[in-house]
Amino acid sequence: FILQMEIKFQNDLYCGGAFVQAFHRAGQPLENFGNGTQSVVLFGPDRCGSKGRVAMLFFFQNPVSKQFEASMGTKYVPLPPNDRLTHIFTLAVNKDSTYEILVDQETQAFGSLYQDLEPSVIPPEEIDDV
What we know:
This protein is mostly beta strands. The chain contains one helix and ten strands, in the order βββββββββαβ. The radius of gyration is 16 Å and the shape is globular. It starts with a strand and ends in a 12-residue tail after the last strand.
């Protein structure tokens, strides 16, 4: 799948973000969606002061606790442009679970959803005793 958006900040982005969120509809009527609806993917530029990133978060339901947990792409985190120009942000996720983040159609980051998310979406084979 591909998530893509065009953004132009009319004022400097000092502390904030602009995100697109994808939801799993699962046959639910649209009136069931609102501010509290759990997203499956969140993607877009995020900046606070001199720190910034193009955020990529995937939300998975923990099979034991049934709570939703966020896994964030941390291996390659591109910086968002810091200007007042129009930019196109693209997240492409392939069938083989690889991803690519593009800004203005130029690859900024790529990797594997299985290897590059923190915490990992694949549980460890062994868990240390406490």
